[in-house]
Amino acid sequence: MSERPGPNVPTAFSRVLPAARWEPVTLGQSGAEVWRSSRHLLKIQPHLHPAVTSLADERERLRWLAGRVPVPRVLGYFADSTHEYLAMERVPGIPMSHPDATLHAERMAGLLARALRGLHSLPPRDCPFNMTLPVSLRLARERVAANVVDQTDFDDERVGQSAVEVLVWLVQHRPQTEDIVVTHGDACLPNFIVQGEYVEGLVDVGRAGLADRHVDLALAARSIGRNLGQKWVDVFLDTYGRELVDEMRLDYYRVLDELA
């Protein structure tokens, strides 16, 4: 039997990533190639359009979040002429979307709500990353213009629509105000690692930054509905704080994610 090929580890990482048995990680839709060993994680991504989240973006956010919320420790970053590489320590535990985690749907819904409340309680004045609507809509326009939006991955409500049509809707229905907090930016179940009763790590934080709290609530609610069942969305929102939730904004930020 032939041995499974491993990742292309840059020689620059020879000190931080010792020889190991690597396996590919197929969970998630970040667009990056992801490999894990028993102790480490390696992400590899080709250089994409500037409006697409880079691994350098993720590195900077991981460094800022460290000590504030649980995130993987950055071991190294490297870029060559074609790709960029990000090495991290592997967070112990399993994603909230793992079958073993989804057996405990009520617990996962509550843990996710409390994890987001903790993140959203960080002082916004301390966060250097701006992902508010002026920035997010500008990036969306750039991605549409560059034709890097995957129109085949739209939610069922927008199947058949073009990226341009979605962008026009977003501009026409833009909320007049934003409830700004420090957000994860891609708050789906696979991006929260749990072990027992605790959230051990937030991962894939390349879109983290100051934004409306509904950026996270919208994607978390959608992910809970898909992975755990629609009835647990109410548990999630009630635990987070129903008084803070605007249903129209949940709809808006789900649409905005189509162009992310």
TrEMBL record:
Pfam families recorded: APH (PF01636)
Binding site for Mg(2+): N191, D204
Signal peptide, first to last residue: none
Gene3D superfamilies reported in the protein's UniProt record: 3.90.1200.10, Phosphorylase Kinase, domain 1 (3.30.200.20)
Keywords carried by this UniProt record: Antibiotic resistance, ATP-binding, Kinase, Magnesium, Metal-binding, Nucleotide-binding, Transferase
Molecular functions (GO terms): ATP binding; kinase activity; metal ion binding; phosphotransferase activity, alcohol group as acceptor
Domain Aminoglycoside phosphotransferase: start-end pairs: 22-249
Active site: D186
The family this protein is said to belong to: Belongs to the aminoglycoside phosphotransferase family.
Protein name: Aminoglycoside 3'-phosphotransferase
Organism encoding this protein: Deinococcus radiophilus
Taxonomic lineage of the native organism: Bacteria, Thermotogati, Deinococcota, Deinococci, Deinococcales
